[in-house]
User: Fold Symplekin C-terminal domain-containing protein from Camellia sinensis.
Amino acid sequence: MEDGFSALPPEVPDVGNLGGEIPGLDSAVHSVGLAETPIVSSLAPTDLEDASQEQGTSLGSSVMELVPSISTDRSEELSPKAAVTDVSSRNSLTVTSVGLSTQFILPKMSAPVINLADEEKDQLQKLAFTRIVEAYKQIADAGGSHVHFSLLAYLGVEFPLELDPWKILQKHILSDYMNHEGHELTLRVLYKLFGEAEERDFFSSSTATSVYEMFILTVAEALRDSFPASDKSLSRLLGEAPYLPKSIFNLLERLCSPGSSDKDEELPSGDRVTQGLSAVWSLILLRPPIRDVCLKIALQSAVHHLEEVRMKAIRLVANKLYPLSAIAQQIEEFAKEMLHSVSNGDDTMDRIDGDRTELQKDLDKPSTEQLSVGAVTKDISSDTSQSCVSPNLSSSSLMEAQRCMSLYFALCTKKHSLFREIFVVYKSTSNAVKQAVHRQIPILVRTIGSSSEFLEIISDPPTGSESLLMQVLHTLTDGIIPSPELILTIRKLYDTKVKDVEVLIPILSYLPKDEVLRIFPHLVNLPLDKFQAALARVLQGSSQSGPLILPAEVLIAIHGIDPDRDGIPLKKVTDACNACFEQRQIFTQQVLAKVLNQLVEQIPLPLLFMRTVLQAIGAFPALVEFIMEILSRLVNKQIWKYPKLWVGFLKCALLTKPQSFSVLLQLPPAQLENALNRTAALKAPLIAHASQPNIRSSLPRSVLVVLGIASETQNTSQVQTTPSLYCRCSQFR
Assistant:
């Protein structure tokens, strides 16, 4: 029947011929054929255009099946006439019915509703979300990025959590953070999650909080690892995020204090430490509610066991953070506690070690930036001293002392009055701590200079800090012309509080010459190393006036010291002489000749004169002839009347033989005999020398007798025979 309907020609004569073959139905068939023809012709061409092939075929079949069923049934029940009349009326109804049926069916030809399984629905949502994400370029070109970001954030919240829309967003953001406007999109997502976390529904709030922490931490870690340390994206993100969870503070702590956590697989580079400290600084400036926690991270880094890390943090704290009045007191108290920790022994260290986790406890507390915008900021303890103890170092070690004190030293350069605390602590510290202090003093003092606050500290140093005071004074004057205020402060200090002349050494070059000579015995009484320092200052003088005291004047001043009168041990004086002779480029042969020439004229002779003569011969053998002149002058001064000098004279004679023989032969017989008895080694060579005819003839008989060259009896007989011979001769006259 479908084939016949499909092949039915449109011409009316064919329809009439077909109806003529059935008697009694000509008019009926013809009428029906005429009515069907437009229906068929109208349905056939729109079979594929207005509906599917299946719906068109079904409609055509229904119409064709309807017409024969009517004509066949009525032809069997009615007469031809009645049949024609009845069929005609029914034909009209049939045509109308078919037309109405066609109009009713066509509007129902729409897209079908398909029921999908849950997995298919999830896949479809995920696909749609991905397409929206990937359309960023076209949307950005059209200027719709803000709408795009808002839509993604909204869909991320509305989508089922198991679809993990946040992972898709993270992947998109981190694949090209700059070109994908990752910062703006991340903030839009974070603020949407922040708002969701404010909802009263516990489940929704908890979910949003968890997603928020995961999202910001993932992005922050990616920025840390992917971007160069100089990039500011991490600082910008943390500064503009709605709030920072504990995990972010842990991230910053690991950046600023590498190696402080067991989770650190490897230590980051110094640039990464700078990146972390830069982020902390930004947060301290921009986010007051979390200022204390961030400050603790910076302070912990400022006492780190690695010097590179510690120095970076100290520069940040001292140069950037300490000038901020809101946190200056906290920084100062922390640094002061670190300073005292190295001097209070193991008890303090044990207590500090017990507080090492204080920062972690603060991070475990609810953040001061709560999810609730109206939350009240909680008080945070300023005790971060837990970081002062290294597990592998003792409190007495040099490195440990430097680690704990370096921050305080840096603060002293910003606030000079803090230096007094160093003097207070110094006296009760161990040798290792003192050494650490002395290492820091030069650069610290040069930075501070002779400020009024610093001079006030110097003018009244605590007892027990003398060695520290001396280093400070030397640093202030080494290679620098001291200010009049500094000189006045030191002189006043010597006159009133510190009676040790050592305190004047740094400014000796700038004191009047007569004042230096007046205190010179006290300088000699100093330990040898300190006297040598004073000697260098005196001989060097100032760059303007040259040497304050000449080398010859120094030796003369040393010889002018009377141990009994001045209360200076003799050994101190001899050590001072030795110190001068060690500097042969300064105390030259000419200087010594000048000194000896002046000393030999002093009355009484200096106690150490002969010792100096002996040293001069040993240092400069060419002075022997000059020394012989000195010895001759000593004979004229009756050197034997000075027992101590007499011993030195004989030693010098023995040392300088045979040149000294001529001087010895100038001695009176009694003193010559005493000399030979005291120094037996001189007798034989002196006799040999005097036995020479030219020498013997010039010597008195008494000297020859002392030498044993002539006998005393022979001398007496000669005296007796001489008058008798004279008498005999007179008889012949």
Notes: The two ends are 214 Å apart (CA to CA). Residues 122-226 form one domain. The first helix runs from residue 2 to 6. The CA atoms of residues 94 and 233 lie 79 Å apart.
